[in-house]
Amino acid sequence: MERLLKTIPHVSGTSKGDTGRVGVIGGNVAYPGQPALAGLAALRTGTDVVQLLVSEEIHTTVASYSPNLLTDRYAGTHFTGEALEDAFDLAEWADALIVGPGFVDPEPAAVQELIAETEIPVVVDATAIGPALGGELAMENTIFTPDSAEEEWIDEEYGSIEAFSTETDAVVALTGGTDVIVADGDRQTNETGTSALTVAGTGDTLTGIVASLLGQGLERAEAAELGAWILGKSGELASAEYGAGVVATDVIERVPDTIR
């Protein structure tokens, strides 16, 4: 792990974007905070610039969360094919892309086309996971970050996350009581963490951390392994201060301390 930590830049580059740009596509009227949590986690992991792309229905709400996040909008209330032009523009700008935190009923064809046509690393999260599984998509640039409930979608389609990884070349970072990372069909577990990480929003936090590491140049398996470790250690630091009252933003604020 020390070897992986040493690969992270500890100061920003000489110009904006030198340590990565992360795009986040997600959110819905029921879950407007999820893309913002992922974006803030990416910033705390060292990303220079994060831009969110959310539906016009929640744009004003999401844009009010933090002045540190750039926020744009697509037309409509759900992610459909009509949003793809805006999504591809964001992917062209970014070094890593997050798809899914806070989505409700995204259009499967739109999710699949976005993943298939995007050349940068893509972190697929939350309710984008199920729609992404249909068809014969190549997954060699993806990391999936399911929780135990979302893992069931993968199991139903492929039998196990190991089989999914082997057949598609996707990397999986599964959050739960013990985080599991699967790459090339091989499973390993992450030993850091605390029961406080069951609180809402920590999955979005992991997604942002992993995307930041990808944008800074780490390979997918390394980003998944190190991302889970950083999340777990940050949760431990937050729990030491807040006990059972930890919330996701407490964990995000401890990420720089963990990396140091």
Automatic annotation (TrEMBL):
Q: Which Gene3D superfamilies match?
A: 3.40.1190.20
State what protein this is by name: ADP-dependent (S)-NAD(P)H-hydrate dehydratase
Provide the organism lineage as a comma list: Archaea, Methanobacteriati, Methanobacteriota, Stenosarchaea group, Halobacteria
Catalysis: reaction(s): (6S)-NADHX + ADP = AMP + phosphate + NADH + H(+); (6S)-NADPHX + ADP = AMP + phosphate + NADPH + H(+)
Q: Which gene encodes it?
A: nnrD
How the protein assembles, per its UniProt entry? Homotetramer.
As for what it does, the entry says: Catalyzes the dehydration of the S-form of NAD(P)HX at the expense of ADP, which is converted to AMP. Together with NAD(P)HX epimerase, which catalyzes the epimerization of the S- and R-forms, the enzyme allows the repair of both epimers of NAD(P)HX, a damaged form of NAD(P)H that is a result of enzymatic or heat-dependent hydration.
Which Pfam families does UniProt cross-reference here?
A: Carb_kinase
Binding of AMP, residues:
203
What organism is the protein native to?
Natronoglomus mannanivorans
Q: Which UniProt keywords apply?
A: ATP-binding, Lyase, NAD, NADP, Nucleotide-binding
Note the InterPro entries from the entry: Carbohydrate_kinase_pred_CS, CARKD, Ribokinase-like
